[in-house]
Write a structure and sequence with these properties.
4 helices; two-stranded antiparallel ribbon; 9% strand; 85 residues
Length: 85
């Protein structure tokens, strides 16, 4: 599926899947362009992916989480809480 251009008409940056960690504060501190490119990569290459939980250095991490990054997967999961709770 081609990547849709943003409102500024430019493609989001290419982000390697190995650079994506939704369980890292470093990821969320990156700029919007990087994060946008990361979600394009996730939707294309790993639409359902598992990540460790966010934790500060002084905290013990909790359980991780699954990230659903396509509309179809989010819609299905939201309509089937008996499966995804």
């Amino acid at each position: 599926m081609p990547i849709a251009p943003r409102t500024n008409g430019q493609q989001p940056p290419q982000v390697d899947i190995s650079d994506i960690d939704l369980g890292s504060y470093d990821f969320w501190e990156r700029d919007d362009d990087f994060r946008h490119g990361a979600f394009v990569t996730l939707r294309r290459d790993a639409p359902i992916a598992y990540f460790q939980a966010l934790a500060r250095p002084s905290e013990s991490p909790g359980r991780g989480h699954w990230a659903l990054t396509t509309h179809e997967d989010v819609r299905f999961a939201s309509r089937h809480p008996e499966i995804f709770s």
